[in-house]
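Lab notebook, design round three. We kept the backbone fixed and only want residue identities now. Task for the bench partner: fill in a sequence for the structure below.
Input structure tokens:
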């Protein structure tokens, strides 16, 4: 296994710039997730790392070796695609052993390695089956097995679970996490599914329009989004984001026809933020019901999605449309007025799209 280092990689197709100055590292043995909306450049980036595409500029290192001038075969990476094309005329055993056969690995060793991987992935009972005799989940495991059996320095995954149904996805997600623990392998994993990113990633890199928005642990990305893009992209239902204005004293926030004493949230922002236009972010689960006199926001419930344990309550609060995730014990009906506030610690403030950071403001 080895670390991966991507340095200032840019890519244009004709005049279209798809990646701009992307730099990041994946540590040896780390599970790193690239998360972004469709079209953000994730696949292009993986293909560049694998050598299937050439960067317009930038460098790629695996371990200490510069690999961007090398052909794919010489990079020692395994790529698992969304469309895991297995060879239909070959058995599972032959599919798993194919790359090793090409490498002229001795037969007995191929047998050992294939059997070991099949056992690890619990497809050892299917070794003599053809792909069409397998379930979707078993096929995906064979695709994984083909990568693992090669013992590459680096694994690249491009939305490998997106063709599976929701239940299978959830269980494969857990299996992948366990597999990573057992193999201790360096993995770079592309997804647009945030549940996958949050549960699998030791490090998450959020990409939008070909540039990195934030890199961090899942909890950083969720609890301290660096900008309004990350704030709105990560979290379901999405974070409520609305425009407001801080007053000159740095104590009150005006937003959407409401005015709230915000000194609790603003006191340690310092003076620099007084009078600024801001975007306020509050996650649906951070809005709590309260007495009318304590409310920051009040409005009528327009629509209620009942999930059993919780409800997503869609509200119109004067000029604002919000979603609150409230426990089912509140017996709210459509049309009822709901009074809401939040813990100041849970309020995110952004100026010109960028997080106003309380800790850095203090420092
Ligand atoms: N070979 C290509 N020629 C021209 N444009 C491309 C090519 N490959 C990808 N693109 C464009 O680059 C952008 C990013 O594509 P891609 O990396 O596949 O996105 P993602 O995997 O994040 O959905 C898209 O706008 C896509 O249309
Ligand atoms: Mg893609």
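Proposed sequence:
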């Amino acid at each position: 296994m080895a670390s991966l280092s991507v340095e200032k990689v840019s890519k244009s197709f004709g005049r279209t710039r798809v990646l701009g100055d992307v730099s990041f590292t994946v540590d040896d043995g780390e599970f790193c997730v690239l998360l972004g909306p469709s079209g953000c450049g994730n696949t292009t980036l993986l293909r560049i790392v694998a050598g299937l595409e050439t960067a317009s500029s930038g460098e790629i290192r695996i371990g200490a070796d510069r690999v961007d001038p090398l052909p794919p075969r010489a990079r020692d990476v395994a790529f698992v695609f969304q469309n895991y094309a297995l060879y239909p005329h070959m058995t599972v055993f032959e599919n798993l052993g194919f790359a090793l056969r090409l490498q002229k690995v001795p037969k007995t060793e191929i047998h050992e390695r294939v059997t070991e991987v099949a056992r690890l992935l619990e497809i050892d009972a299917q070794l003599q089956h053809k792909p069409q005799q397998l379930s979707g989940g078993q096929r995906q495991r064979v695709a994984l097995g083909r990568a693992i059996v090669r013992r590459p320095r680096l694994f690249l995954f491009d939305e490998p679970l997106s063709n599976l149904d929701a239940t299978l996805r959830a269980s494969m997600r857990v299996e992948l996490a366990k597999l990573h623990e057992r193999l201790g392998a360096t993995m770079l994993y592309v997804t647009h599914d945030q549940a996958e990113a949050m549960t699998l990633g030791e490090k998450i890199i959020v990409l939008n329009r070909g540039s990195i928005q934030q890199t961090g642990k899942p909890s950083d990305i969720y609890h301290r989004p660096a900008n309004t893009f990350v704030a709105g992209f990560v979290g379901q239902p999405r974070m409520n984001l609305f425009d407001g204005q801080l007053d000159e004293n740095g104590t009150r926030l005006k937003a959407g026809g409401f005015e709230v004493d915000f000194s609790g949230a603003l006191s340690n922002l310092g003076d620099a933020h007084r009078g600024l236009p801001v975007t306020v972010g509050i996650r649906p689960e951070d809005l709590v019901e309260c007495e009318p006199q304590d409310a920051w926001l009040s409005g009528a419930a327009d629509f209620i999605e009942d999930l059993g344990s919780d409800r997503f309550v869609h509200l119109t609060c004067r000029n604002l449309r919000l979603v609150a995730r409230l426990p089912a014990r509140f017996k709210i009906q459509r049309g009822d007025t709901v009074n809401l506030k939040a813990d100041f610690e849970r309020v995110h403030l952004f100026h010109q799209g960028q997080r106003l950071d309380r800790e850095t403001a203090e420092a």
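Keep this in mind before ordering anything: The radius of gyration is 25 Å.
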